[in-house]
Amino acid sequence: MKIFGMSDPHLSISTPDKTMEVFGKRWERYLEKIDRNWNQVVSKNDIVIMPGDISWCTRLSETFDDFKFLDDFNGIKLISKGNHDYWFSTKKKVITYFDNNFESLKLVEKNPYNHQNKYIVTGFKGFNPQVEKAVYEKQLQKQYNSLRLLLRNVSKEYAGVPVILGYHFPPLFNEELRFHKLFKTFNVKYCLYGHTHIDYEQMFVGERDGINYHFVASDYLEFKPKLILET
């Protein structure tokens, strides 16, 4: 079994007026690229972790076509929240919606998924470093505390099992290592993130202190899920 990652597909089947194609050549026919590439690399029993910015819809009730598009592909899709996922209402409502309508979609936003006791996959939107300076430290600490609580609870429930974290925003911004140190404390071994669609070369990819960072924004990956590991 393989675990892949791909974030930020910004699906617009349900909202065709919000297509990402307006953002340049890289995004031309991007839905077709996803459709063409996905099953070339992902098999039926694989997992694809998708940390945020899944659909442009503003209401959960509008998302069916976008999520059906994903559901039809191979693999289990583990979805967490991004800053543009306006459709996200409450964890309970999203889980119920997924369970009632789709076979392969699972919500992992603050909601651990146990992969055969080998890895725990969970998701967290994270902190946007572009907030105003006046509220920067307050918002940073708020997100830090929330993530710490999530990881602490996961550590207690699944003691000793390594964690794969889908974290939407880049976690190593400006060498702010607060979150990185938190990952070390609570056995996070893989961190998948996206969010940004410019300055790819500034995104950290690789291992640091035993934590493997993967930048998985869909446009960076040329709309093909990236292999993270085999289990």
What does this structure look like?
The chain is 28% helix and 22% strand. The protein is an alpha/beta fold. The chain has one domain (2-230): Metallo-dependent phosphatases (Purple Acid Phosphatase, chain A, domain 2, 4-Layer Sandwich), CATH 3.60.21.10. β2, α2 and β3 (76-80) form a beta-alpha-beta unit.
Quick recap:
Helices cover 28% and strands 22% of the residues. With 231 residues, it is of the alpha/beta class. It has one domain (2-230): Metallo-dependent phosphatases (Purple Acid Phosphatase, chain A, domain 2), CATH 3.60.21.10.
Q: What is the CATH C-level name?
A: Alpha Beta
Total helical elements: 5
Structural class estimated from helices and strands: alpha/beta
| Succession of helices and strands | EHEHEHEEEHEHEEEE
Placed side by side, the strands forming the largest sheet appear as 5-6-7-8-10-9
Number of domains: 1
> What percent strand?
15-25%
- The CATH superfamily is known as Metallo-dependent phosphatases
Instruction: Tell me what the CATH architecture is.
Output: 4-Layer Sandwich
Distance between the termini: 5 Å
Task: Write down the Rg.
Answer: 17 Å
CATH fold node name = Purple Acid Phosphatase, chain A, domain 2
